[in-house]
Structures are given as C-alpha cells and as structure tokens.
Specification:
By secondary structure, the chain is an alpha+beta fold. Helices cover 19% and strands 26% of the residues.
C-alpha cells in the first residue's frame, strides 16, 4: 500500500489517500524510479506556490530502491519540472479525502495537553520579556524562538500545537490538537466552529473588554494571531492557522512564528501588521489576536 498526503493546510489534517492495487503501486513506483531527480527525501521550507505530496511506501518490498518516504512537487527537487509532472501522475492514480478521525466517534480516545506543562515548551523560561495587551487588561510573555525543538518531530505537530507551545507526543497528523476538540471530539471545518472551539478551549480574544489575564515571568501567557478561511492551493477547502509572537536571540528582535502542519517552523519579522498581511497573502481571513494562558488542548489518541 502507498499512502499519499497532499500538504495543503496549516491546521487541519491534510487530504490523504491510499493506493492498494498492486498494479497501480508498481506503476507509481516505477515512474518514481525513472524520475529520481523529481523527489526529495527530507521536508524543506514551505513554498507558497507549491502543494507538496508526501508518499509513504510502508512495508512494500522496495525492489526499486526507493526510500520509505519521499516528497514530490515541494519546489526543492533537482528537476522541478519533472517533480510537477510526477505529482500530477500520482494524483491521477489516488483519490484523496480530508480525514476527520481514525476511529468512530463513540470509540475515540482523547489525549490532553496542558500549556502549563513546562516539559512540552520550546523554551522552559523564565520569560522576562512581556507587554500589556487589551488596554492593560492582559499581560503576555515572549518565549525564545527555537525551531529545532519542533523540527525534531516535524510531522507530529501543527500550528495550534505551536501556538499553545505544547509539543505533543506526535504520531502524525491524526494526532494533532485542534480548537474545541476537548469538547466536540471534532476537527473544526468552518469559521464558526473554529471561533467556538477557541472559546471552549479558553483562548481569549484581545479586546478592550476582554477577560483579564496576566501571565508572569514564571507562568507565561502567549500572544497569538488567529486566522481562518480558504487558503490558496487548498482546492476550495477551509482551514485555520495560528501564529505566536516570540523573541529571536540571534536577530535580537521579535518574530511572528508558525508551524504549518508537517512543514518546518517559519517566521516573519514583527513590523507594521506584517503578520496580518502574511495571513491574507496565503488566503486566510484575519480573525484578530488572542491570549493563551493555562489552558488544556486535546487531540485524538492514535496508536
């Protein structure tokens, strides 16, 4: 069996399909073997003009000498044109669906993660950098930018995990946390479900009338950016995305950083509403800023 995943989202689980017919499997693997310069074997930085395919060969007898997992049309292959053509060939062979769960709802197990758990953070503190928000009704802290912490488990965490600063036990995309999952055991599929999920998880949207929340040097509250909608290259499907404001020791400046699904952590510099423009550039609707402080988020328990 070949498993094919199309990396189009930042928060939701990506469309996935399986090729099970032995003849189709052999055709795809033979085509890949003829076009080795069209694939890459490590996940590189996201290209906004590309839609990467991740192909996992599982326990198939690799008579063609191919790796157990490879990537197509990510913009980093030696032969970029061949990579695009190979992606089209594979997509013509497989039917992709957006997963919602691995089990039936009644049988689903849920695992929870607390943002107060220091062991899950990319920066264990203390957090001396802070600022007021919401006309003084909130105080947020800024951890250090540490992408290597996340890239060690690059496929195990999405943008919500990064925003909450909880690196999960990561068993792939079905185990990513999502807004509202603790309550609904469902991945949000619309702006309304996304915003309701934020509310049920305890993410506080910043406003002049926001509920007071004050992080401290030892008990931090994170400043996050929120967006949702239909991103470009997503084939008209809805998604969500988060950013978290962090401090770069290397550049001595603030970043807005995010982790779009299985891709590496990426950042933009904190200047003149750049984070809002970045969200819009990718096709999302800007939903404002929020504060994450001592909340619990949930994911499906995948074994």
């Amino acid at each position: 069996m070949l498993t094919v995943t199309q990396a189009i989202f930042s928060g939701r689980a990506d469309p996935t399909g399986e090729i099970t017919d032995p003849k189709d499997i052999e055709k795809v693997l033979a085509e890949v073997a003829r076009n080795r310069d069209a694939i890459t074997t490590s996940i590189e930085k996201r290209r906004p003009d590309r839609t990467m395919l991740m192909v996992t060969t599982g326990d198939i007898d690799r008579t063609h000498g191919l790796p157990g997992e490879f990537y197509v049309d990510d913009g980093h292959a030696l032969d970029d044109g061949a990579s695009r053509r190979l992606a089209s060939y594979i997509l013509d062979t497989v039917e992709l669906e957006v997963p919602t769960s691995q089990k039936n709802v009644a049988a689903r197990d849920v695992v929870s993660y607390s943002t107060a758990d220091i062991a899950l953070r990319d920066d264990t503190g203390p957090y001396p950098r802070s600022s007021p928000v919401g006309q003084g009704r909130g105080t947020v802290q800024y951890g250090r930018y540490n992408p290597a912490w996340w890239n060690e488990y690059i496929k195990g965490n999405n943008c919500y995990a990064y925003a909450c600063n909880v690196r999960t036990h990561g068993q792939g995309q079905l185990a990513w946390p999502h807004p509202g999952f603790c309550t609904t055991q469902k991945i949000p599929t619309s702006d309304a479900e996304f915003l309701a999920g934020l509310d049920s998880d305890g993410v506080i949207k910043i406003s002049d009338t926001m509920e007071p929340v004050h992080g401290t040097v030892d008990d931090p509250a994170w400043l996050v950016g929120l967006c949702s909608g239909i991103p470009y290259n997503a084939n008209g499907k809805w998604d969500y995305h988060f950013y978290r404001k962090v401090w770069s020791e290397d550049d001595q400046q603030y970043y807005w950083a995010g982790k779009p699904n299985a891709y590496p952590v990426e950042f933009i510099r904190d200047v003149d509403h750049a984070v809002e423009e970045d969200a819009k550039k990718h096709g999302y609707k800007w939903q404002g800023y929020g504060v994450i402080h001592d909340i619990t988020v949930c994911a499906e328990s995948v074994t």
